[in-house]
Model the fold of this input.
Amino acid sequence: MRIDLITALPELVESPLAHSIIGRARESGVVEIHVHDLREWGKGKYRHIDAPPYGGGGGMVLTPEPLADCLDAVIALGDAPEAVVFLTPDGETLDQPLANGLSLAKRLVLIAGHYKNIDQRIRDLYVTREVSIGDYVLSGGELPALVLIDALVRILPGAISDAQSALSDSFQDGLLDAPAYTRPASFRGLDVPDVLRSGDHAAISDWREDQRVAKTRQRRPDLLSGAD
Ligand code: ADE
Done:
């Protein structure tokens, strides 16, 4: 998979994209991620990329010309992207099925706006998917873009050494995850459940399933109707 991320704040995303699972997936060629600084396409001496909104109101809006020029240049760098995704609180809410679907794309172009909005004509002309990471407003699309990239990359084949690990994530089958324990067997008076130390894999699997259903029923009963 190839991901191109357009942002006016590349320094905000570069370090998180260089470490841990995403960093390793890039190094091993599971994913190619390119960050593009929108300001390089800015206009005039000061490389302007934003302006106040027509009709008044607070905040600044990313102007269409730099973003369109940037998108044209970025799109031309490879095969046609399956989607041009704008991160916005107006978008469809990111969940595991949406991440699974997008992870099948060979190429995605992501736009992170760091201002009040981007000009609607960019949304009309270029954007094919609008994605929100939840019903709250952040200062920009950079953190949402990182959230989306993380959700996508961790499920790409080869990104996680233990393939089971991504498949058994919470939400992958519609249930929350079971509690996890590691050494020591006893900690501040709390013991690891005996079954996890029994070596009986069928019993462990049953226990985990029971825990997942019970936790989901208690915390997110809304998920149970859609669970496998
Ligand atoms: N930009 C600002 N807030 C956002 C959100 N909740 N999801 C996606 N993009 C955003």
Observations:
- The mean pLDDT is 95.
- Strands lie at 2-7, 32-37, 50-51, 61-62, 83-93, 107-112, 117-118, 129-132, 186-187, 190-191.
- The pocket of adenine is lined by residues 87-89, 132-134, 136-138, 141, 144 (CB under 6 Å).
- Residues 201-219 form the longest helix (19 residues).
